[in-house]
Amino acid sequence: MENLTTTNIHLWKWKNLEVAWKKEGSAINAPIRTVLIHGFGASKEHWRHNQSVWGEVAPCYAIDLIGFGDSSQPLSQLKNESNLQKGFTYNFDNWSNQVKDFCQEIVQSPVLLIGNSIGGVIALKAAKILGKNCLGVILIDCAQRTMDDKRLLEQPMWMRLLRPGLKKLVQQRWLSRNLFQNAAQPSVIKNILKKAYPSGQNIDEGLINLLHKPSQRPNADEAFRGFINLFDDYLAPELMEDLKIPVDLIWGEKDPWEPVKEAQKWFVQIPCIRSLEIIPGAGHCPHDELPDIVNPLILKIIQQAT
Fold it and tell me: Which positions ≥6 away from 7 have C-beta within 8 Å?
C-alpha cells in the first residue's frame, strides 16, 4: 500500500508499520534503480545533496529505516525479552528484510544499493537476499562494528572484563532513554557533527534539524535502545565473503569512527570489492560533507551498472 502526502513523502505499509520514502529522477527507461540506505540517527533527508543528482541517470529512492525519520518507531524488543504486542527487534536482519521487501514491492526493478555507515551493512545483507535483483553495492564509510562480540579479542582486557555487566546495564530503558535524551539536543548534535564532518563543510541548520526533528517523536529512543544492544550481529567482511556482485567503497580520509585503514585492508583482502575511493579531508559522511566530490564518483558507478 502506498500514498502520497503533501510533503512529497510516500508512505508504504510494511508488517503493520509505516515506511517513509522519497523518489527522485524521471529516467524511466534506465535498466536499474538506486536505493539509498541512511546511517544510524539519520534519515532519507541525509541524501539532500545527492538524490536529485543521481536520479538524473536512474530513478533514485531514499528510504527511512524503521525507527528513524518519518517511519514508524515501535517499541524495541531485545532477543531475551518476551513478545511485545507491538515490539520490533532492531537488528540487521529486520532492516535488511525491510529494504528487500521495499525493492520487490515498490521499486520492482534491478537495484544498486547505496548505504552509509550501518546502512552499508544493511545494504550488504539485503543484496544477499535479493540475489540477482541486486546488481551491486556502494558502501560509504561502512560500519565496522568494532564492539561486536566477534571482535571482542581486539578490545583491551579491561573492556572484556566489563562486557557482561555493560550488556545487562544497557538493556535498561531508563538508561538508554536518558542517554538518548541527552544526546538529542541541537547543541550536542552540532558538536557531534563537527567531529563527523572534519572539514566543517555543510554543517548547517538544515542538517541539524533533519537529525533533531525525528529525535523528538514519542518513541525515538527505542531504536537507540535496540541498536546499542546489538552485540552479536553481522560484520561487513563476513557478508562479502561469497558475494558475487561488485562492491565499491567510498571513504572519508578522516572518518573518526570507521578508520580508513580498515577499508584499505578490505580492498586488498575481499575479492568482490572492485574499487576504493578515499575522499581527502572528509569524515564519516562524505556524501553530505563534500557532495561535489562524491556525486561524480557515484554517478560513474551508476552509469557502469546501466
Answer: none
Helix or strand (DSSP H, E) at 279: strand 273-279
Q: What grid cell was written down for 304?
A: 557502469
CA distance 172 to 259: 30
The total of other beta-carbon atoms located within 10 Å of residue 1's CB is: 8
| Residue 249 bridge partners (DSSP) | 139, 276
Express each pLDDT in 31-89 by its tens digit.
899 999 999 999 999 999 999 999 999 999 999 999 999 999 999 999 877 766 678 99
What pTM value is reported for the model? 0.94
Q: What is the C-alpha to C-alpha distance for residues 69 and 82, in angstroms, rounded to an integer? A: 27
Q: What is the pLDDT of residues 115-151, one digit of tens each?
A: 999 999 999 999 999 999 999 999 999 999 988 888 8
Q: Are 116 and 254 in contact (CB under 8 A)?
A: no
Architecture of domain 2-305: 3-Layer(aba) Sandwich (3.40)
Per the structure block, which three cell numbers stand in for 118? 550501518
Domain residue ranges in the chain: 2-305
Q: Give 164's contacts (C-beta < 8 A, 6+ positions apart).
A: none
